[in-house]
């Protein structure tokens, strides 16, 4: 699930900015998104409820583990607590009620509340995702522009090959490769974890440890966190950078064929100005609209990448939960990532609507 | 063709579409009959509702009002299997032979399809019938395994006709079957349809936008304007003496071989385009383009009187048909 | 004046046209061939030689040995026998569920359309692999649950595709012509509309093989798919993570996976550029 899902959105999106009357349409679509948001979130909880209620052969075993399920008392308590003997809608209602009170269940493997564990892990994943996104944009957009500007050149072909490799690369393979080369062979990056165990973590303000360290006035700590962050962030950043490079290139190539570029040429503007000032803008906008979608891939990629590089985020938590068949943890983690993904997408679209340069351009 | 029950009888037919901008009444209270072995042409500009009516006859589109009786049976009362059975007896030939043939089927499969749909005969019988029908339309069995993409426009339309004929229908609804073809091919296809009528006793409801096309084909003609019939009658009479201003306009619009007549032609009878069907003009729909319009035309919708729907049919100046005077 | 008899239109879509596509197709074919022939050309992938644990690549073991002393080359060759069919099964299952649902939704419209598409929207609104992980975990770790889980998040893609195709095709005149012959709605949909949607659906399904294979290997990597000791590329990487010093044990199966996905994407590139099937 690495790239094709956003890729087809790209094919749709790239043509959008050239259409007239789009701003009104986008505003309407944002309004619609806001209206459907509660339904989407509700639908997600329903989906999770149905999966956890119907898919496992025995919910009691799934939630309590084999040991717990041997204990009849525990099973009865479990059934009573979740109302498994009551009508389905009532069970869903109980499930929702628990969710709203922040009760995501108890981890089978650690016996701690899943909500607490996820709350501790989520900021690390967000920090990783944001760092990876920045890297991917910084790598991908210039590559795509340069490749489009020198279409069919050697550079374009090499970039094409490299980015094809990038989008075909499972994050876990690249993470392993990077771990081998950057950490084990070259020692350029720090190993597993988020912070050197001998350093004290900064007081939590934003949850993003690099920023928290800077806020606490401890640049050394920030640097150390960064040192740990580099490996997973580069791995995810490179893969998605390859994706962005391909999107930007194809959009630019389309844009350079467009009427306004011909007009600009007719006005005597140089190729560089055209690429830099005009086509760039048209290529950038659709790319930015894919940022929200990319987060879904980043969250998914985080599962394997965090595991391999030892970054203590939701991904690694999900991996551990999945391998130990810690069912409540997996379900809660999925729901958290799902909600985060939907919200991030909404925010990106809102920002995108605000920053829409078509107003300025017209 | 005397007192015999008509094969097709359309009474007060109405067809309407819901669009984003509102409801369009494409066909509004049309009466029409086709007798066995008769060719009736339905003529009008595109958008006048003639194709909708043709499709509504086959119940490919629902009627918003009125009824369609085929061989005495009200098709509107049929649905499901009886309707599909009835469709064996009235088939359709489409306008664009390119898009009306399934690109994934060979000619043989296309022509066999109606037989398969109706589970008619054994495979061997079906093969024989397909070959026979292809011969009938002037295509040999060598076309059996070709795909439509490999055929010319005229050949495709012959396939379309073969598909409609293979079930031995009594009525063929032809929706502008030649308008997408080259002029040289048009005559061939029209001749084919005439031959088929001769040999099979077929009745045809022939939809066209051009009066000239139907002149040597049809027995009777009905002219439609914005969903209504404005004039109808025997083809010779109508060409000799068109009585509705719109029919006159259509005849004037036909190409004239004689330059002198072309020059002498009176002022354009029908200036402008078809009005917005969402908001048709009040009264007589044609009044916005009619050179003879009077205030009454905006107030009262004219009914068909003596087969002409015009308030002023008795006051109009005599029409000089350019075709007749051309001597060709 | 007629051109000679030709093949059914549509399937031509899949014929490779560029050198890059031929390269991609050749690599795919090579992997399929190797997977089929693995038992003949390679050693037993399960044979453990405790003395030879974690041997670096050598003449005897070109890809080295893993932590149980098994020959990595043999395991990579046999791994294709698990990894590749899983990818194919995922796409097949997703297509078999998604295409009829989407086609029916687009043909019948109404509440069915609404229901199917809302469920599809919901599934597409979640990160696919994460949801697949949850479903696979719920079903319990096994090959079939990995296939079902990924197909469960992929079918909406085909439902949307098939629905879009049907919505376009049902406007075409030959579909109207089919109704006019007296064909029932079911006959029109399954015998006339769907066959015309098939080329595009097939194309997308073939291009999705890379994604599906990757997803299947990822679930195996996460321990939810193929179970040890059966060799499978993702699972092999997963096991080898514990012995990072023996890079060969993880990187060779990893590269096998990447080369296959690259090959599929190489083959699909041209279609992407033409905007086909997306």
From TrEMBL, chain B:
The molecular function terms in GO held by this entry are:
ATP binding
UniProt xrefs under InterPro entries: AAA+_ATPase, ABC_transp_ATP-bind, ABC_transporter-like_ATP-bd, ABC_transporter-like_CS, Oligopep_ABC_C, P-loop_NTPase
Domain of life, source organism = Bacteria
Domain (ABC transporter): residue spans on this chain: 10-251
Read off the SUPFAM superfamilies from this record: P-loop containing nucleoside triphosphate hydrolases (SSF52540)
Q: Does the keyword Nucleotide-binding apply?
A: yes
What's one Pfam family here? Answer: ABC_tran
Q: Which UniProt keywords apply?
A: ATP-binding, Nucleotide-binding, Transport
Family membership noted in the UniProt record = Belongs to the ABC transporter superfamily.
Checking NCBIfam families in the record gives: oligo_HPY (TIGR01727)
Name of the protein in question:
ATP-binding cassette domain-containing protein
Per the UniProt record, the source organism is Plantactinospora alkalitolerans
From TrEMBL, chain C:
**Residues of the signal sequence?**
none
Q: Provide the membrane topology annotation.
A: Multi-pass membrane protein
Q: Which residues cross the membrane?
A: 20-41, 84-108, 128-155, 200-226, 246-268
Every copy of the ABC transmembrane type-1 domain together lies at 80-268
Give its localization: Cell membrane
The protein's superkingdom reads Bacteria
Q: Which UniProt keywords apply?
A: Cell membrane, Membrane, Transmembrane, Transmembrane helix, Transport
Task: Tell me yes or no: is Membrane among this UniProt entry's keywords.
Answer: yes
Q: Which Gene3D superfamilies match?
A: MetI-like
Does the UniProt entry include the keyword Thylakoid? no
Q: Which CDD domains match?
A: TM_PBP2
Family (UniProt): Belongs to the binding-protein-dependent transport system permease family.
Q: What is this protein called?
A: ABC transporter permease
Question: Which species is the source of this protein?
Answer: Plantactinospora alkalitolerans
């Amino acid at each position: 699930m690495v790239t094709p899902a956003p890729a087809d959105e790209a094919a749709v999106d790239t043509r959008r900015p050239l259409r007239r009357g789009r701003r009104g349409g986008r505003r309407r679509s944002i309004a619609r998104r806001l209206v459907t948001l509660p339904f989407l979130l509700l639908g997600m909880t329903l989906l999770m409820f149905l999966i956890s209620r119907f898919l496992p052969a025995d919910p009691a075993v799934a939630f309590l583990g084999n040991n717990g399920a041997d204990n009849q008392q525990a099973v009865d308590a479990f059934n009573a607590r979740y109302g498994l003997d009551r009508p389905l809608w009532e069970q869903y209602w109980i499930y929702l009620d628990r969710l709203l009170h922040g009760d995501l269940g108890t981890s089978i493997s650690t016996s701690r509340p899943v909500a607490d564990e996820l709350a501790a892990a989520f900021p690390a994943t967000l920090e990783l995702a944001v760092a990876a996104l920045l890297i991917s944009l910084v790598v991908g957009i210039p590559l795509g522009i340069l490749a489009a500007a020198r279409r069919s050149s050697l550079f374009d072909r090499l970039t094409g090959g490299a980015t094809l490799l990038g989008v075909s690369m499972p994050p876990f393979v690249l993470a392993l490769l990077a771990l081998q080369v950057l950490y084990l062979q070259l020692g350029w990056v720090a190993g597993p974890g988020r912070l050197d165990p001998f350093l004290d973590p900064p007081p939590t303000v934003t949850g993003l440890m690099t920023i928290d360290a800077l806020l606490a006035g401890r640049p050394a700590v920030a640097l150390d966190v960064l040192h740990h962050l580099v490996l997973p962030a580069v791995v995810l950043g490179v893969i998605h950078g390859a994706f962005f490079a391909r999107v930007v290139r194809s959009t630019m190539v389309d844009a350079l064929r467009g009427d306004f570029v011909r007009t600009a040429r007719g006005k005597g503007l140089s190729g560089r100005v055209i690429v830099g000032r005009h086509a760039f803008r048209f290529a950038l906008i659709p790319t930015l609209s894919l940022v929200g979608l990319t987060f879904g891939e980043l969250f998914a990629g985080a599962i394997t990448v965090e595991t391999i590089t030892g970054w203590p985020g939701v991904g690694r938590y999900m991996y551990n939960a999945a391998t130990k068949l810690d069912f409540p943890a997996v379900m809660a983690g999925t729901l958290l990532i799902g909600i985060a993904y939907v919200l991030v997408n909404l925010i990106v679209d809102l920002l995108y609507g605000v920053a829409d340069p078509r107003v300025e351009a017209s | 063709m005397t007192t015999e029950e008509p094969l097709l009888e359309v009474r007060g037919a109405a067809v309407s579409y819901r669009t984003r901008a509102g409801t369009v009444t494409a066909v509004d209270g049309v009466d029409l009959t086709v007798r066995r072995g008769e060719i009736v042409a339905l003529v009008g500009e595109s958008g006048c509702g003639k194709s909708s009516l043709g499709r509504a006859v086959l119940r490919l589109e629902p009627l918003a009002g009125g009824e369609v009786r085929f061989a005495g049976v009200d098709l509107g009362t049929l649905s499901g299997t009886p309707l599909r059975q009835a469709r064996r007896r009235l088939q359709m030939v489409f306008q664009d032979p390119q898009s009306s043939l399934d690109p994934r089927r060979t000619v043989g499969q296309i022509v066999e399809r109606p037989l398969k749909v109706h589970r008619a005969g054994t495979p061997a019988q079906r093969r024989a019938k397909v070959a026979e029908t292809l011969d009938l339309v002037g295509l040999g069995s060598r076309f059996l395994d070709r795909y439509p993409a490999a055929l010319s426009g005229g050949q495709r339309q012959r396939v379309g006709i073969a598909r409609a004929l293979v079930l031995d229908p009594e009525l063929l609804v032809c929706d502008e079957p030649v308008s997408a073809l080259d002029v040289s091919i048009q005559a061939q296809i029209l001749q084919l349809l005439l031959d088929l009528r001769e040999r099979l006793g077929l009745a045809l409801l022939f939809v066209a936008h051009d009066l000239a096309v139907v002149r040597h084909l049809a027995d009777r003609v009905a002219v439609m304007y914005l969903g209504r019939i404005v004039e109808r009658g025997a083809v010779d009479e109508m060409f000799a003496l068109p009585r509705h201003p719109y029919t006159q306009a259509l005849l004037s619009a036909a190409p004239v071989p004689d330059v002198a007549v072309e020059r002498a032609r009176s002022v354009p009878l029908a200036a402008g385009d078809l009005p917005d069907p969402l908001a048709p003009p009040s009264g007589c729909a044609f009044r916005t383009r009619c050179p003879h319009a009077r205030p009454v035309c905006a107030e009262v919708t004219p009914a068909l009187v003596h087969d002409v729907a015009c308030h002023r049919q008795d006051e109009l100046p005599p029409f000089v048909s350019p075709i007749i005077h051309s001597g060709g | 004046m007629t051109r000679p008899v030709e093949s059914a239109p549509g399937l031509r879509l899949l014929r490779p046209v560029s050198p890059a596509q031929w390269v991609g197709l050749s690599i795919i074919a090579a992997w399929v061939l190797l997977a089929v022939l693995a038992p003949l050309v390679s050693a037993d992938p399960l044979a453990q030689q405790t003395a030879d644990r974690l041997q670096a690549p050598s003449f005897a073991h070109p890809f080295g040995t893993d932590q149980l002393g098994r020959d990595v080359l043999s395991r990579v060759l046999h791994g294709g026998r698990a990894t590749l069919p899983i990818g194919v099964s995922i796409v097949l299952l997703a297509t078999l569920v998604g295409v009829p649902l989407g086609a029916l939704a687009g043909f019948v419209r109404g509440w069915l359309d609404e229901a199917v598409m809302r469920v599809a929207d919901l599934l597409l609104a979640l990160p696919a692999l994460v949801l697949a992980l949850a479903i696979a975990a719920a079903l319990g770790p096994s090959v079939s649950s990995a296939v079902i889980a990924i197909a469960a998040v992929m079918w909406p893609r085909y439902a949307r595709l098939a629905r879009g195709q049907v919505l376009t095709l049902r406007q075409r005149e030959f579909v109207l012509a089919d109704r006019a012959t007296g064909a029932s709605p079911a006959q029109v949909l399954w015998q006339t509309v769907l066959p015309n949607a098939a080329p595009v659906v097939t194309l997308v399904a073939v291009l999705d093989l890379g994604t599906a294979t990757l997803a299947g290997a990822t679930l195996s990597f996460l321990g939810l798919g193929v179970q040890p000791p059966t060799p499978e590329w993702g699972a092999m990487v997963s096991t080898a993570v514990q012995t990072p010093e023996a890079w060969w044990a993880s990187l060779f199966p990893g590269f096998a996976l990447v080369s296959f996905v690259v090959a599929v994407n190489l083959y699909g590139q041209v279609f992407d550029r033409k905007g086909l099937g997306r």
